[in-house]
């Protein structure tokens, strides 16, 4: 089993959830608004405002690192579903622009369904 932790744009959450469901992965956890940054130096909303010519946004641009709002989507899948889940997340979130997100994959030793006591892949299905 693998845990796939994806950090994605807020506006891509619903599209990603639908794509995962359509791919046969109906169970996942979404973490509310999280803040973070990659290598970029500005908040994308401020940058867009500055590009549109808004003086307030231009004044806020500077060299200090800014944090960008994101969502974290966590999925635990069987080993044979892992690559398909990753491909689905990439296909849904890839715009080719900075800020598309990151995916982290970690092994899961066991999964137990609390209600029934099922373990391993049975607990995922």
What would you note in describing this structure?
With about 120 residues, the chain is α+β, with helices and mostly antiparallel strands. It has a single domain (about 1-125), classed as 2-Layer Sandwich (Alpha-Beta Plaits), CATH 3.30.70.120. The protein is built from 5 helices and 4 strands, in the order E-H-E-H-H-E-H-E-H. A 4-stranded antiparallel β-sheet has the order 2-3-1-4, covered by helices on one side. Helix 1 packs antiparallel against helix 4 (about 80-95). The longest helix is centred in the C-terminal third of the chain and has 12 residues, at about 80-95. It is elongated. The relative contact order is 0.30.
Radius of gyration: 18 Å
Distance between the termini: 12 Å
Helix percent band: 25-40%
Number of strands: 4
List the helices and strands and how they pair.
Layout: E1 2-9, H1 13-22, E2 29-36, H2 44-51, H3 55-60, E3 68-77, H4 82-93, E4 102-107, H5 121-124
Antiparallel strand pairs: 1-3, 1-4, 2-3
Helix pairs in contact: 1-4
Summarize the entry for a quick read:
By secondary structure, the chain is of the alpha+beta class. The protein has helices spanning 13-22, 44-51, 55-60, 82-93, 121-124; strands spanning 2-9, 29-36, 68-77, 102-107. The chain has one domain (2-124): Alpha-Beta Plaits (2-Layer Sandwich), CATH 3.30.70.
Short key terms for the protein model shown above:
125 residues; alpha+beta; Alpha-Beta Plaits; 4-stranded antiparallel β-sheet; 5 helices; 4 strands
């Amino acid at each position: 089993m693998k845990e796939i932790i994806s950090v994605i744009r807020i506006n891509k959450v619903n599209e990603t959830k639908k794509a995962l469901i359509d791919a046969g992965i109906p169970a996942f956890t979404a973490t509310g608004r999280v803040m973070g940054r990659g290598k970029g130096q500005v908040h994308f909303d401020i940058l867009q405002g500055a590009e549109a010519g808004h003086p307030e946004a231009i004044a806020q641009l500077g060299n200090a690192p800014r944090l960008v709002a994101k969502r974290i989507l966590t999925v635990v899948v069987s080993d044979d579903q892992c690559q398909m889940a990753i491909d689905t997340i990439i296909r849904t979130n890839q715009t080719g622009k900075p800020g598309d997100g990151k995916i982290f994959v970690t092994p899961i030793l066991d999964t137990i369904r609390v209600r029934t006591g099922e373990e391993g892949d049975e607990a995922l299905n």
